[in-house]
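Aim 2, interim progress: modelling of the iron/sulfur cluster-bound target.
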Amino acid sequence: MTDDSTTLRAAYYTLGCKLNYAETSAIGRMLAERGVVRARGGEAPDICVVNTCSVTETADKKGRRLIRSLAARYPDATMVVTGCYAQLKPEEVAAVEGVDIVLGSDEKLRMADFIDAWRRDRIRRVEVTPALDINTFRPSCERGDRTRYWLKVQDGCDYFCTYCTIPFARGRSRSGRTAELVEMARRVAAEGGKEIVLTGVNVGCFGLDTGESFLDLLKALDGVEGIERYRISSIEPNLLTEEIVTWIARESRAFMPSFHVPLQSGSDAVLRLMNRRYDTALFASRIQFIRSMIPDAFIAADIIAGARGETPGEWEKSLAFAEASGVDRLHVFPYSERPGTRALGIDHIVSQEEKHRRVAALSLLSDRLMRRRLQEMAGETRPVLWEHPASPEDTVMHGHTDNYIRVSAPADPRLYNMVTPTLLTGLDPEEEETMAGVPQTDTI
Ligand code: SF4
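Predicted structure of the complex, ligand included:
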């Protein structure tokens, strides 16, 4: 895909989740196969690709703001917008000044063809397949940050939680095939990759559409030589079965002792209103089971503050449960009203002010839990995978322990992309939620 005389340059912008980042990389790779190079810092791109998120009203707003600022900065660039916001509200996105092409979830991996067509006829296009008709799945495995790879194993969701628009943005649950995903992991190993994070919208639903099993996928990936670490990005508590936890604890070679399990509310009444597939008793039993099998596992949970139906009484229950649940960290999200969701029919509405108060209380709780956990780990020696820093001039490097604690140490290029035993000396006074570490390099 070249102009008459020049090579086209594209710049990529991503909002939202890891899955979006992995997909943007896949789009970049696909355009590169058609001769489009990545615009370097300072170069004006010929094409701007914006991969949007629509998890909240704020995410939509961020998307519009980003598109407008890019259009003002690069008025001659072709502006392509895709992602969940484009899928859910294509006309709203198309109405933002400067947008040339809007592509839905199914169309984004044919982006090169749409850009070609635009460059031929300059006709603006809005191409979006209704989400519930999408049944294609394209696995992708991309370097998500400077060291880790993200392997997309599943897309879409059939759960239809009452507050969530994702099933309408990404369609029904569908999965990759184990053999293909294992092949991708082998390619990562051949490139020198050491860690892979399994991503998806609802990864625990892997295989329900193909007859394969999630646990069998984990076992097959575990056998790929060269990959030293795997993590599951996030998994619903009802799908993180005791069988999976037992296998990770007793047999797995490379699945790490870190888990991210959405809670969303610590009130059973609110969980029912949300149409979640578990109650607090099941959540608590999963966390206890993980702790009994893998005592040093680090467990994070998502929680929503101020959802509809979260009356003062239910809020008190939610906060108390979150504190007692045994998780080490909370990712706190304020409830966001999304047009078209069933949650809008739920009666009790929490005021903005009260919602902010609840977010602050949960964030404080999370800080306390996390700090306590980090302090307990001071003095331990744990394996850390050191990451390439953002700039070669950086004097500090970062890495993560097996149980996903962020660690800092003076930069040492010999250690980038290597796993070393590392003494955790205590909380890093310079950086939040980070331990200071001393790599034990005498074995290198
Ligand atoms: S499980 Fe619920 S919250 Fe998660 S993507 Fe599916 S519908 Fe949304």
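Residues 157, 159-161, 164, 166-167, 201-202 surround iron/sulfur cluster (CB under 6 Å). The first helix runs from residue 18 to 33.
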